[in-house]
Design goal:
This protein has about 200 residues and is an alpha+beta fold. It has a domain at about 10-105 and about 125-165: Peptide deformylase (Peptide Deformylase). The chain is about 25% helix and about 25% strand. The protein is built from five helices and eight strands; from the N terminus they run ααββαβββββαβα. The strands form two sheets. It has a five-stranded antiparallel beta sheet. Strands 4-5-8 form a three-stranded antiparallel beta sheet. Strand 6 and strand 7 (about 135-145) form a beta hairpin. It is globular and about 55 Å long. The structure holds zinc ion. Zinc ion binds near residues 110, 112 and 156.
């Protein structure tokens, strides 16, 4: 069965997801869900998928940044974004225990809002505590693009989307991003909207 990814406007994307109990995590149902979410993320393709995006109000997300997704970016782009492959893993009941004051601005997108992108400031480094698919406590200290993916997915579990945090004047269609902005320097502090005109 192929999961349907909820699109912008679905109330499910705006609800706070609930915690999972360890026995629930270990259940056959949740284990099957994890596999289906992994397949849906790979099909999309995306680097993360959170349960609210398939209409389930659960604090569970899958993450994977595969080597072949990185191929369309130059070495400079990857270095600037501190983007490296991230193996497939699941985060359940995640908590951001630390978030650096150092913020980075980059364009990001979302499978629930396809065809658009915007610059979103995100902490460069974070520490996340979570349960894995065996209900074992884990933590990760992530920086760069992986830290961005984690923050984006954890936002989904709180009913937040990148458009809540974006620098709204950078909002663009993906076509225009590819045509006009890809590979160009990103404004670290875009000018404030003009009061006149
Ligand atoms: Zn998203």
């Amino acid at each position: 069965m192929r999961l349907k990814i909820m699109q912008m406007g679905e109330p499910a994307l705006r609800e706070e997801a609930r915690l999972l109990m360890p026995e629930e995590i270990l259940s056959e149902e949740t284990q099957r869900l994890i596999h289906e979410m992994r397949d849906a993320m790979r099909d999309a393709p995306g680097v993360g998928l959170a349960a609210p995006q398939i209409g389930l109000p659960l604090q569970l997300a899958v993450i994977e940044d595969r080597e072949d997704l990185l191929k369309s970016f130059s070495a400079e782009d990857l270095a600037e974004r501190e983007r490296r492959p991230v193996p497939f893993h699941v985060i359940i009941n995640p908590v951001i225990a630390y978030s650096s004051d150092d913020k980075k601005n980059f364009y990001e997108g979302c499978l629930s809002l396809p065809g658009f992108s915007a610059v979103v400031p995100r902490a460069r480094t974070i520490r996340v505590e979570y349960l894995d698919e065996r209900a074992e406590p884990q933590f990760v200290q992530a920086s760069g693009w992986y830290a961005r993916i984690l923050q984006h997915e954890i936002d989904h579990l709180r009913g937040a989307l990148y458009i809540d945090r974006m620098l709204s004047r950078t909002f663009t269609t993906l076509d225009n991003w590819t045509r006009l902005h890809k590979g160009k320097p990103i404004l670290q502090s875009p000018p404030a909207p003009s009061q006149d005109a």
